[in-house]
């Protein structure tokens, strides 16, 4: 119940700076440091967007990292974004790929799309049009329109044998619930 009240207080007072607000923020940070996943994500989103706190990408990365290390796919995807675009960190496509893979393996469709994009561009991974197609098509199959567009582009660039291999790999990944893809 205390957690719910803290969250409500944080949201209600997000536009005003008061002693009660500062205290609620400290209480939320205590919960987050104790490993409360939902609170870590709330704080990460607040700092990323400047919602009730000054926008601070570095602090957002800190809270996303704690949530991602607990296995949260959305936090992992967001860390991929932060590392791809250098938000609060030095841009690092290798780390972006690491976090996207962890999220994609849990079925995060936007992480799947971004993996396809990075394989196509050779950013953080060796350029590989077959893997690019596999991930882009998987995201497309899960309703991501950008994945559909990327799949169409890649299909135009690929031989029939490469397309067949990409589809085989995609089926294999789906059968393995994306683990080790």
Give a verbal description of the structure:
The chain has 181 residues and is an all-alpha fold. The chain has 10 helices and no strands. α3 runs antiparallel to α4, α5 packs antiparallel against α6 and α8 (129-141) runs antiparallel to α9 (145-157). The longest helix is centred in the last third of the chain and has 16 residues, at 160-175. The mean pLDDT is 90.
List the helices and strands and how they pair.
Elements: H1 2-12, H2 19-33, H3 37-49, H4 57-69, H5 73-85, H6 93-104, H7 109-121, H8 129-141, H9 145-157, H10 160-175
Largest sheet: none
Q: Give the low-pLDDT segments.
A: none
Strand content: under 5%
Q: Give a count of the beta strands, DSSP E runs of length 2 or more.
A: 0
Q: What is the helix/strand order?
A: HHHHHHHHHH
- Helices, by number, come to 10
The general outline is elongated
Distance between the termini: 41 Å
Global mean pLDDT: 90
**How many whole angstroms does the radius of gyration measure?**
19 Å
Helix coverage percent of residues?
over 70%
Tell me the structural class: mainly alpha
